[in-house]
Design goal:
It is a single chain. The chain has ten helices and 14 strands. Helix content is about 35%, strand content about 25%. The chain has two domains: about 160 residues, Rossmann fold (3-Layer(aba) Sandwich), CATH 3.40.50; about 120 residues, Riboflavin kinase-like (Elongation Factor Tu (Ef-tu), domain 3), CATH 2.40.30.30. The protein has a six-stranded parallel beta sheet, sandwiched between helices. Strands 9-10-13-12-11-14 form a six-stranded antiparallel barrel. It is α/β, with parallel strands linked by helices.
């Protein structure tokens, strides 16, 4: 997949376009992309996505923005897996936020992206003060010669699929509900880095991943499956949080893989959270922590029937 940054430089050829934040790339996003690809095939143009970095709510209210479900890299990888051929990552800054709805259409959609066909979700708003909507886009489409269509909400078990719904499920520790809304288990990926080796001292060596999600969408101890180290995912147990017992302050993902003894420093792995075991907590000493880690590993093994 080709990735463009900014919106002032035109793409090489006209596009069929979908716009959104695509945080988490859930089943609603997947349905939007399928509609995008169908329209692109009929027009014989590249299916293209316009997304924003950072998330607009992070720009307007950084102290109260919702937790991200996916980093930019994760989002791009997921969109590529769905069949998106081009993604334009638009920096969401003061200049961009100040664009009127009309200027957004003229500068971004018409001159920058040469849009021929546009697909949006049913709740999409754009431009300064969120003044732009579907009707305004249709009006501009008639003037500039591009088609506009919207996509209705996707429902799973009667629930509207949304990023906020996924966050709610993760916050509640309901990994099954999160997976139903996402169409897959929730995943965090990253590069394995050297840590303080405390897990090894406690008898449970871990693969450590520094977390870019801030704030975290969830914390706790989980049964996980790890991809990227072979043909099939490997089972394990993971702690996602700040590690209060050892005085941690920065988010860290620690994964202990069962019956595994390889040097994987520098490897890029994906961690699938399939079941929550418990909340993160502070223990009075290392002996209590070691005992709980052993219990967590046993519980995760039982979950996987190992």
């Amino acid at each position: 997949m080709r990735v463009f940054r900014g919106h002032s430089r035109p793409v090489p050829a006209p596009v069929v376009l979908a716009i959104g934040n695509f945080d988490g790339v859930h089943l609603g996003h997947a349905a939007l992309v399928r509609q995008l690809i169908g329209a692109a095939e009929r027009a014989r143009l590249a299916p293209t996505v316009l997304t924003f970095e950072p998330h607009p709510r992070e720009f307007f209210a950084p102290g109260s923005a919702p937790a991200r479900l996916s980093t930019l890299r994760e989002k791009l990888e997921l969109l590529g897996e769905l069949g998106v051929e081009q993604t334009m990552v638009c920096p969401f800054n003061a200049t961009f936020a100040g664009l009127s709805a009309d200027d957004f259409v003229e500068q971004v959609l018409v001159r920058g992206l040469q849009v021929q066909h546009l697909i949006i979700g049913d709740d999409f708003r754009f431009g300064r003060a969120r003044a732009g909507d579907f009707e305004l886009l249709k009006s501009h489409g008639k003037r500039h010669g591009f088609a506009v269509e919207s996509m209705a909400s996707v429902l799973v078990d009667g629930e509207r699929v949304s990023s906020s719904g996924v966050r709610s499920a993760l916050g509640d520790g309901d990994m099954a509900r999160a997976a139903r809304l996402l169409g897959r288990p929730y995943v965090i990926d990253g590069q394995v880095s050297h840590g303080d080796k405390i897990g090894r001292q406690l008898g449970f060596a871990t693969a450590n991943i520094r977390i870019r999600h801030n704030p975290l969408p969830m914390t706790g101890v989980f049964a996980v499956e790890v991809g990227g180290l072979g043909e099939t995912p490997l089972p394990g147990v993971a702690n996602l949080g700040i590690r209060p017992t050892v005085g941690g302050t920065r988010p860290l993902l620690e994964v202990h893989l069962f019956d595994f003894d390889r040097d994987i420093y520098g490897s890029h792995i994906s961690v699938r959270f399939v079941h929550k075991l418990r909340n993160e907590q502070r223990f009075p000493n290392f002996d209590a922590l070691k005992a709980q880690i052993a219990a967590d590993a046993a519980a995760a093994r039982a979950f996987f029937k190992l």
